[in-house]
Specification:
Blueprint: H1 4-28, H2 38-52, H3 64-80, H4 91-103, E1 119-121, E2 133-135, H5 159-173, E3 178-181, H6 188-197, E4 204-210, H7 217-225, E5 229-230, E6 235-237, E7 243-249, H8 263-274, E8 276-278, E9 285-288, E10 291-297, H9 308-311, E11 315-318, H10 324-338, H11 344-348, H12 350-367, H13 381-391, H14 399-404
Parallel strand pairs: 3-10, 3-11, 4-7, 6-9, 7-10
Antiparallel strand pairs: 1-2, 5-6, 8-9
Helix pairs in contact: 1-3, 2-3, 5-6, 7-8, 10-12
Amino acid sequence: MGDQKAQTILEQLFEQYVAPTLSMIAKEKWKHVTPIKDFAMVEVMCRILEGLLTPDNCPPGSERDVYEAYFQFAAVWGIGGAFGSDKGSDFRKAFDGYWRGEFGKSTMRFPDEGSIYDYFIDPTTKKGEPKRCAHWNTIIPTYTHSRAEPYANIFVPTMDSTRILYISNMMLLLKKPVMLVGNAGSAKTIVLNMLLRALNEDNWMFYNISMNSFTRSFELQFMLEAPLEKKTGTIFGPPGTKKLIYFIDDFNMPAPDKYGTQSAIALLHQQECYGGFYDLKKLTMKKLENVQYVGAMNPTAGSFFIIDRMQRHYCTIATPFPEADVLKHIYMNIMSGHFEIFSTQVKEMCTSLINAAVGVHMAVADSFLPTAVKFHYQWNLRAMANVFQGVVCTNPGSQIGRAHV
């Protein structure tokens, strides 16, 4: 991308797309799931472009329409990837409407069906042909049920998880930290665990750290040092030549001190900016090599958000709560696999069982909203998961199984 033509095209695209979009967001006061600075959004865009504008996708000398297609995709996720979608304020839908209205006449336009978030740039487009969109549904992996798999480890791929994993994997390879932000039960932890488990074990290792309100910097430093080994005098890193990814869950949970500082997050910020932290006894700097971070955060818990100087380091992606059709897709895959060895009468009940459970869940979530008095009314994916966790404990020889046979 070092040629003058590419530089000129990208500068024009930034002026055409990014500047007016950031102005609109500020004017309309659209809110991301957690506060994000303009500079941080633009940096994520640049990282996505870095991952997409490869010689295969965009050969040297490519025309403007090729760059524009990838640029639109990068802008949608770099600027709009952290917009949430809920009953009160659907900023993701508002961003979709703005983009279609403002840039609908571009060389590469998103299809009218669905949302701009539903499409990616088709990598199978032949050289010389205009870039076209492909729907994420076309690349969702097939789910195969395993009765031996613990229920907590079951993961049914959806369109949301597929596109989040696509962006997150790209960021990891470019050494850009990733943070998923969403309400409890939106599958943040499950998606990131799937991302980490899919990495090549010969080259990567990961280490999980769950924060809580009592996590302090010295406790976190002890956990960060646990999987490391000494390389030289002051340099530490993962064993051998592997790369280590820390998965920080509940990122915003540490309670602030009397000065408003979350010391654990300040320690992570120091490591991000300076490459290490101080030995608590010798007071010398410990450098950490070949380490990266991914994180998950619930914006309705803990301190709600973290300092912007730390947030700017991360590619922030919102994890919206799945809609009714997605819930039915998830549990239909699980339960149809589980009921495979049951009698025909039991298997025929699968669809009705799932429709009833999802219907009740959606009705309760819509009717029983949280208030200051009834703050415990939090109906999320965990409530549904608990219902079906009990159902998958059944077998044809159990009392419940015999009752239906």
